[in-house]
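ok so I'm stuck.
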Amino acid sequence: LTAEERYGFSTKKAHMFLRDMADLGVWRYKRNIEKLDVMSDKNTMRVALRTGILQLRIPLLASFLDVFCYQYSMIDRFNRKAWREVWKAWGGISNNHRPLTP
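replied:
not stuck anymore, here's the structure
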């Protein structure tokens, strides 16, 4: 859906749209719903770094993590992986009220 940049929307926006459709009950996914990625932005990155969900061995070049920072894409990738693990662990709790999608 988002392999070509010429369409004018990002993978993040496409995943947000698909997630919203599932949450609102518009679409009922039978498979691969777990393939949707966790929405990552500077706010979720900050929470992950401050709470220790995401830990780094090197200092960040820019503490405010703007999109022009060289380390942004790396932190974004690891942030999505870290939050996915949180989502999986959340599913192991009884009566968890976890959303269908990460």
